[in-house]
Amino acid sequence: MNLSIPRGIVYHQVFFDILSLFKSFYRRLDRDDFIQSFQVEFAKYIGRKYSVMFPYARTAIYYALKSKNLPKGSEILMPPITIKAILDVVLSLQLKPVFIDIDPDTLCFDMKQLEKNINNNTKSVIVTYLFGMVPKMDVMINLFKKMIYLLLKIFHSA
What we know:
Blueprint: H1 14-26, H2 32-45, H3 57-66, E1 75-78, H4 84-92, E2 96-99, E3 102-103, E4 108-109, H5 111-117, E5 122-125, H6 137-157
Helix pairs in contact: 3-4
């Protein structure tokens, strides 16, 4: 088991940072035309009709969860190492955070603990990329699909 925290990898050149910094001084990001243009282009890029840009992840997570109209007390699975503002979003919507242990080798959910904690009251999972480590999303998605299938099977047989 490797307990050292991996460092992120920079995928661009320093020139890109300098150019972006220079542009940020001379371009107003709050211009409606810039934001609208970005949203339209991004929607095309991902093959959707619309996209909405949010200034912070916590704002996007807030509206994503709020749009689901989840009942109070619905369980949201999340890692115990997170940004406090994300936890505040869950609590402000009167949802119940359920913290899932982290696998020290992958810095992502311990898959056995994740599977153990999925139940009828689980409504969402917030996946966090800790320290630049990308989780094995395909494994998680397959687990979620399997659990949804089992829950639907139980629901329809009742």
